[in-house]
């Protein structure tokens, strides 16, 4: 079998097995959750609950994202040491993971309403500096 034939079989396999296949276990996920509005509607209550109950998530979007994954996908295994956190999950679940940027945007939407504001003053100052910088950038580049 030539390299081209092998590559064509790989592409065919990817197209058949790509996004949209159903997982063996029903996680209650909506396979049509493709646009941003649907993701907000589906993930906002979960993120709100995480922000209200776990203070560390208000200061760190990575922790918020991983906690959301643990909530939505109960079969994720988490191990941690002093320096590392290791997540183990089935490969078939990856297409259903929400985008980290979407989660950050949802957190920002909730922050505007006063929900889940950072408890660390340094994080709050850094976010405000970034917000001002972005606002100035877009004013100058209209």
* Biggest β-sheet strands, sense, barrel: 2 strands, antiparallel
Give the number of DSSP strands: 2
Helix percentage range: 55-70%
Kindly name the structural category. Answer: mainly alpha
Please, could you describe this protein's structure?
The chain has six helices and two strands. With 142 residues, it is mainly alpha-helical. It has one domain. It has a two-stranded antiparallel sheet with strand order 1-2. β1 and β2 form a beta hairpin. α2 crosses α4, α2 packs across α5 and α4 packs across α5. About 12% of the residues have low confidence.
Concise account of the structure shown:
By secondary structure, this protein is mainly α. It has six helices and two strands; from the N terminus they run H-H-H-H-E-E-H-H.
Features:
two-stranded antiparallel ribbon, 6 helices, 142 residues, single chain
Chain-wise SSE layout:
Elements: H1 3-17, H2 36-53, H3 56-59, H4 61-72, E1 77-80, E2 85-88, H5 100-112, H6 121-140
Antiparallel strand pairs: 1-2
């Amino acid at each position: 079998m030539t390299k081209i034939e092998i590559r064509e079989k790989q592409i065919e396999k990817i197209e058949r097995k790509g996004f949209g296949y159903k997982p063996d276990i029903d996680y209650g996920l909506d396979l049509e959750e493709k646009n941003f509005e649907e993701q907000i509607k589906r993930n906002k209550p979960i993120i709100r609950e995480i922000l209200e109950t776990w203070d560390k998530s208000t200061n760190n979007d990575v922790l918020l994202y991983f906690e959301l994954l643990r909530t939505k996908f109960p079969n994720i295994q988490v191990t941690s040491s002093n320096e590392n956190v290791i997540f183990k999950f089935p490969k078939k679940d990856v297409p259903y993971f929400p985008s980290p940027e979407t989660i950050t945007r949802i957190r920002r939407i909730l922050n505007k309403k006063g929900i889940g504001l950072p408890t660390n003053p340094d994080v709050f100052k850094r976010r405000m500096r970034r917000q001002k910088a972005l606002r100035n950038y877009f004013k100058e580049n209209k």
